[in-house]
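Thread: Newbie trying to understand structure tokens

Hi all, I'm a second-year student working on a class project, and my supervisor (Dr. K.) asked me to get a predicted structure for one chain before our next meeting. I've only ever worked with sequences, so writing a 3D structure as a token string is new to me. If someone could post the tokens and maybe explain what I'm looking at, I'd be very grateful. Here's the chain:
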Amino acid sequence: MLSCWKWRRDLALGLACVVGLLAAPGVTFGWQQAATEAKEAEPAVEPLLRLEQPTVSRTASFDELSQQFAEVRKTRKHFATGQIELFEVYERAMNTAFQGVYPINDRIALLKKWSDEKPEDPTPLILLARFLVMLGWDARGQGFAGQVTEGGGRKFIERLQEAAVHAKAAEKLKPADPELYRILIEIGKGLGTAKRDDVMGWVRTASKIDPKYYPVYQTAAEFFLTRWHGEPDDIAKLAEELQESLAGDDGYVAYARIAERVNCYDHELLYEGKLDGEKVEKGALILAKQFPRAPQLVDFQAIVAWKALRHSDVKRLAKQLKWKGPEMRHWGDEHRYKAFVAYADAPPVADKPESFFWPSSYYVNRFALADKDRRLVTIPFAVAGTTRFWRAEPPHDRDSGIAPLPTAPTDIQASAAGDRLLMEMDHNMRFGALIFDWAKVGEPVLIQRFDSLPYSALSPNGKICATQHGTILSGKVTIRLWDTATVKQLAVIEPDAQHPKLYFSPDSKLLMVNENLKVWIYDVETGKEVHKLSGAWRATPYNGTKPVGFVGEATLLATSSSFKTRKQVIVEWNAPKDEWTERVESSPRSQLRIEAFNEKVLVVGGFRTEDPPEDGKTIRESYRLDIFQRNNGKLLGSIDGHTTRITSARLTADGKTLFTAEDYGPIQRWKMPIPAEE
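---
Reply by user tm_fold:
Sure, no problem. This is what the structure looks like when written as tokens:
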């Protein structure tokens, strides 16, 4: 018995010693030191605040509760986190068991009793409406209409109808409470009974009571989503009216708050041109100044900063997001957030474009210049997306588009004059090509659809389309040439190839067929072969040539590797003379890729691993574009303005402007250097 007591005493003394050591100043253990060092190693970043949770007493009397809400309405307080006290007190009251009442029916009865005892107070009526809306959504579920059960849908309607009775009773009291008008919009959205004029009337009434009560603006924006009761322009009209009617910064903040909310439902609304990007950015900057440590605003501010290419702000916000963790409802998917982090981690670029715009929240695979270089045509990332047209001149407004296509486009080509568009499809092994005519009515009209394999081609004059036919597993394809105006078949070509790429010459008279190391050049009018490279590369100074197109009537432009130097080079092959000319040679550890070209210049990109700095710890991956004069290989200039892989590049017909797109980045407009006269 004594030994047992001594064991307990020794254990207690030991624990006391440990606690004392932990508390003693200057005494650290290994794990404490490691944690401290790790914390000190983290980059300095302003810590975010924790969300405020105002208290509502469980034991308060009805008089005390009414008094608390009256004071909160009067003060119109905003927390440093960006939260509004009135909204948060309502939220807290929803989760408070007043007077120890927990069962749902008893809580409803208690709120009704409060309303009976305080008939002049709108608070219990607003709480009843909120409570019943919550119960209605609990019964329905958050899925789309087709996923709602019959019983769940019935309970949803019944509870929202009961909520509407209490909200209308509160409205008769004409309270100075903007939350009432927010819940009226919420009820109208669920029941489908509210009209646009009703919603705008409630918004205007709430804004007169408290112009900074943004939850009512955000709920109205949800109402105007096309999935609910809105038309495509309704959200923009709401944001514009509030920005113009509210004084000073309040209007821009309301604009940004609306953009923040709808971005959680449809990420394309920030990019499709409906909302004014400059107003969204201005409002977001005002919010960042007012609430620099608000955790609820970080995701949206990060997206807006990224969209504006404000690299220093992106780096700061990325550190805060790393500490807080991203909310995927803002980002849509993990890939987009990772692209944001990659942009934040990349070193700042040296060059800035003349202008830029984001055609989508996802990356742009391909785009084309059309309508005599007056418009850019971007293809959607997904099947349900819309092919969009943008003005090539700043501010790059979106002006029209082609409705969602049955399959997802994978590539787009335009004729030199921009009067024809070729769009390729590939979705679930369903291939095809669509030809659109732009010249007749100013908007593209579908001429013909071809059930063909990938890698079709449109001639520069827009008069001929080349398509491939057969099956991928057949081992051989046929190439058919079509008149795009009459859709009449002009010729059939049968190369010894399984899945070649096709290129027209600038004058549209020749067609190049390329697969691996083989190249055939055909006369378009007759369909006959006129030149051929068989792939016997050891007889030439180059290996692994990859053709990318014509720069003359029979001159092939290609990237290759030199047997002599073991470096990548850009070469030209004059087919009639069978002559090779080397134009550009790569630096060590580089892979060249021709991004765009014309008869005067080559725009060369690819992958470069630049020399490491003196510390030898980091090696930069460069996505710089070099611009060379084609006839002599002279470097005219460089563009260091991209942080990820370039997915598409296009030169205007006059060669003065270059447009580029990159992974999860904007389309950027660059001024081209002028080559010397030959």
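A couple of things are worth pointing out once you decode it. The two ends are 107 Å apart (CA to CA). Residues 519 and 533 are 5 Å apart (CA to CA). Feel free to ask follow-ups in this thread.
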